[in-house]
Amino acid sequence: MLLAGSPCRPAGPEEYRGCGARRGGEDTGVKVPQQLGKGPSAFIPLGEILQEGVESSLRQLLIEAFVSAGRVDNITMVMGLHPQYLSSFWKTQYLLLRMDGPLPYHKRHYIAIMAAARHQCSYLVGLHMEEFLRVGGNPAWLQGLHYAPQKLRNLNEINKLLAHRPWLITKEHIEALLKTGENSWSLAELVQALVLLTHYHSLASFVFGCGINPEEDQDGGHGCWPPSPHSDSSPASDDSMGGSGGKDAMQEVEVLMERMKLLQESQLEEEGVTQEEMATRFELEKTESLLVTPSDIVDHSLQSNVLCFVEDPEFSYKDFTRRGEQAPPTFHAQDYTWEDHGYSLINRLYPDVGQLLDEKFQVVYNLTYNTIAMHCGVDTSMLRRAIWNYVHCVFGIRYDDYDYGEVNQLLERSLKVYIKTVACYPEKTTKRMYTQFWRHFKHSEKVHINLLLLEARMQAALLYALRAVTRYMT
Length: 474
Description:
Elements: E1 19-23, E2 26-32, H1 46-53, H2 56-69, H3 74-79, H4 83-98, H5 105-118, H6 122-134, H7 150-153, H8 156-164, H9 171-178, H10 187-209, H11 243-269, H12 275-288, H13 304-307, E3 331-332, H14 338-349, H15 353-366, E4 371-372, E5 375-376, H16 381-394, E6 397-398, H17 405-410, H18 413-424, H19 431-436, H20 443-473
Parallel strand pairs: 3-6
Antiparallel strand pairs: 1-2, 4-5
């Protein structure tokens, strides 16, 4: 059996005041962290996670995690709502962090720290500081980026671009890292670093998007969020919807079902939309995405344990195109695809990782239980595709054969605000954003969206980075 590669240090089971994960009175025998009633997520009640998640397949995964690492961390508990995905995620992360590869183990964890710090995710920064020390890293490096070797510091520019504006990455960035000298990177090392950076940028999106709580032993239980009013921006619990709120939420579900039905019927009846119209609809969606910004005011003061790993902290996501500005050209997906280009390049330079990444992308893209809220037997492929393609759209990637009119039909404004926030500036995510979209849907369905966001974001950034590598090589 595969050992769980969870992003946390091996802690002894005695460190936890856990409760047996129960369903229907049955004790699974796995102790899970319970932070004085907090649970793994600030957004999802603990009972929801245990009730919806503890199936037999997940139970085995949790046992493996506990045996391997001595703990079941909060990311694992929330991802465990979708055991098939969790298994694929673990295999990939285990290979990235713990199996043979071009980079030594301590540098892998330092790169994870650098990536998580770009999004102020002190949850991941803290976990990997502990892992860095556990595998023999120099404690002096943890005083900040300026104490790390120049070779690692040279990653700062591409880390910054990958996290916030990946479309700006060029072959010159790759060439600068690979040029001969004592601090140069090999191509294999750089590809592993690129995968690690995009993995942890995207995982930070998941942490914030699902409101992952700090681990029980992490910074006194306050290590996940910057000191900002995330929870103050909404009532203590928005889960109960009495009166008109519940009726409105029910109506949202029915409207979405009806729109999906009409779109499916129109696809069968129409000969198709012209290429010109498809291009126009993409540009319209890209322009409209400029208006989709979070209204919640969040204090962005960085905690010292994060700030020391960040250079140019003001650099952040900037909309791909703004009126009056020269926009980079649209990335046409068919010109550089994951399937035909990115996959083979990674597999050539970093064996086995391409296969695992491909499996992870496929698992999440095709994952379905054929349900929407209270409806069963539903084909959700159209909705999943709209979410995936909208994430790629806000990063400037266009699928020429996709009708972006579907995005406007299927994704209402509050969902777009949530998607763009979690994908582009996850540190701004609030509980209010989480509760305001899909109000009658299960928490597991909202976690499913976060998994789609995580993987769509990672693939988008990887495509830009790997395209630059390919251009350098040719």
